[in-house]
């Protein structure tokens, strides 16, 4: 009996599951548009996998999806011994966007030397409109220059693309946004940042083939006078700017959102005039808390959408009265792309996690456009919250797949968790046909521990 049990346990432990699962939610279509989760890797759904990843770290603050890969920036990730010196090296992790598997670690170098060491030396990672990967460090309120680098996507070698002068308004800049071509070889480029705990925003512009200059009529900074709510007089912690792509090929970024911890996203133009805010937005559509910053827009089937942070670590969805953490709202903008007439479509995911990241504030999100096999438009949405998780969603009229039973431990998909699920997971493993639904405890493997996890769920009711 003992020998048989040992053989059985060894056989169970030999099987492994995917790096990621799906969020287990079947989202209802809205106005003929559907959304499905392709995969998720986070504290709520794959806690043991996520917690063992090198990018589960409070210094891994931003991420971006592009051309089949996710790139995650982490400051000072590695300790390198070079002669008698001990050096810190920043990295960008390259992850397979189809399944969440770590593909490569891009250890950053500059001019052949290890790059890192400074505080938050690799704080923003992004992709320009021509497929160039860029990176920027945080710059303090004592730093007159905000540097920006291009990153070799295979080697991690950095090329300095700009030393952006802040002028006379020296404020802390945590994150940047970039639009156009960072090389300025094929198009213009515009870069923005926001001064933390201040009223200042920064903007730099370069024509195609040109040098950098201030983006506000030659000045690099502008003091914002209008906020919403009106009681706010400056941006809060780690604010972010997001330029609006009004049409493909126009990378002027003359309209932009700013989300500043103490505010919901506000839309401005390059004169600093407030164009739109949440004053006329249904209160049910407001962020459940404003502790995290992040926003982006996309278009699909002639409709205009906005994605923004619903909650950071705590919040209550008024529709369900359920506590939520680290999700985003996806809404269709109103007539004339107004915030006031927006219609909420979905909040995703059900949760990424609820563990403090130490105050990074930002939630990264971006979209990619594509078409399915039948030529239907579709959008891929990526979201990443430092120290809590990341997820990829497909949005369109014809998207499918990714759905899993939403009840943890419901291996056989009958909407209940009982002894039938214990039998299902054993059958799955023995037949070799198991999938990620069997990874009940989220440790990246399917074995006897998952059977115990289901039994624990049953006993706890």
Structure, briefly:
By secondary structure, the chain is mostly beta strands. The chain has four helices and 29 strands. The chain has helices spanning 2-13, 47-51, 419-431, 448-460, and strands at 34-42, 60-66, 69-82, 85-96, 102-107, 109-110, 113-114, 124-127, 133-136, 145-151, 157-165, 173-180, 189-195, 200-206, 213-214, 221-223, 240-243, 255-259, 266-269, 274-276, 295-300, 303-311, 316-317, 322-323, 327-332, 343-348, 363-371, 377-385, 389-396.
What does the model show?
With 461 residues, the protein is mainly beta. The chain is 9% helix and 38% strand. The chain contains 4 helices and 29 strands. It has helices spanning 2-13, 47-51, 419-431, 448-460, and strands at residues 34-42, 60-66, 69-82, 85-96, 102-107, 109-110, 113-114, 124-127, 133-136, 145-151, 157-165, 173-180, 189-195, 200-206, 213-214, 221-223, 240-243, 255-259, 266-269, 274-276, 295-300, 303-311, 316-317, 322-323, 327-332, 343-348, 363-371, 377-385, 389-396. The strands form 7 sheets. Strands 7-6-11-10-9-8 form a 6-stranded mixed sheet, with no helix packed on it. Strands 12, 13, 14, 15 and 16 form a 5-stranded antiparallel sheet that branches. Strands 1-29-28-27 form a 4-stranded antiparallel sheet. A hairpin with a 5-residue loop joins strand 10 (145-151) and strand 11 (157-165). It is globular, with a radius of gyration of 23 Å. The two termini are 31 Å apart.
């Amino acid at each position: 009996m003992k020998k048989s049990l040992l053989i059985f346990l060894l056989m169970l432990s030999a099987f492994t599951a995917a790096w990621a699962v799906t969020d287990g939610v079947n989202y209802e279509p809205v106005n003929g548009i559907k959304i499905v989760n392709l995969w998720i890797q986070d504290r709520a759904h794959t806690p043991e996998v996520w917690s063992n990843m090198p990018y589960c770290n409070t210094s891994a603050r931003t991420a971006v999806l592009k051309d089949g890969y996710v790139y995650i920036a982490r400051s000072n990730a590695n300790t390198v011994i070079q002669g008698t010196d001990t050096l810190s090296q920043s990295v960008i992790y390259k992850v397979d966007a189809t399944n969440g598997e770590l593909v490569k670690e891009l250890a950053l170098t500059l001019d052949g030397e290890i790059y890192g060491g400074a505080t938050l030396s690799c704080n923003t990672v992004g992709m320009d409109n021509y497929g160039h990967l860029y990176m920027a460090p945080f710059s303090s309120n004592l730093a007159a220059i905000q540097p920006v680098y291009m990153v070799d996507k295979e080697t991690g070698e950095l090329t300095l693309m700009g030393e952006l002068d802040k002028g006379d308004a020296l404020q802390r800049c945590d994150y940047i946004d970039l639009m156009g071509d960072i090389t300025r070889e094929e198009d213009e480029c515009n870069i923005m940042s926001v001064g933390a705990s201040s009223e200042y925003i920064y903007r730099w512009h370069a024509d195609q083939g040109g040098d950098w200059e201030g983006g506000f009529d030659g000045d690099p900074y502008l003091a914002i006078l209008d906020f919403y709510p009106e009681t706010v007089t400056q941006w809060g912690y780690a604010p972010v700017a997001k330029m609006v792509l009004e049409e493909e090929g126009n990378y002027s970024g003359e309209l932009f959102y700013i989300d500043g911890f103490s505010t919901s996203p506000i839309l401005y133009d390059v004169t600093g005039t407030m164009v739109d805010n949440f004053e006329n937005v249904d209160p049910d559509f407001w962020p459940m808390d404003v502790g995290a910053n992040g926003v982006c827009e996309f278009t699909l089937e002639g409709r205009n959408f906005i994605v923004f942070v619903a909650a950071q670590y705590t919040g209550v969805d008024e529709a369900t009265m359920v506590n939520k953490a680290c999700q985003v709202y996806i809404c269709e903008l109103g007539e004339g792309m107004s915030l006031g007439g927006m219609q909420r479509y979905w909040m995703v995911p059900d949760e990424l996690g609820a563990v403090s990241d130490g105050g990074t504030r930002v939630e990264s999100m971006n979209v990619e456009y594509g078409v399915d096999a039948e030529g239907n438009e579709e959008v891929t949405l990526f979201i990443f919250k430092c120290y809590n998780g990341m997820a990829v969603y497909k949005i369109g009229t014809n998207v499918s797949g990714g759905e899993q039973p939403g009840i943890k431990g419901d291996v056989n998909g009958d909407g209940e968790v009982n002894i039938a699920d214990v039998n299902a997971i054993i059958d799955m493993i023995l037949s070799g046909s198991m999938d990620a639904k069997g990874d009940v405890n989220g440790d990246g493997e399917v074995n006897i521990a998952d059977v115990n996890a289901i039994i624990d769920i049953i006993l706890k009711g």
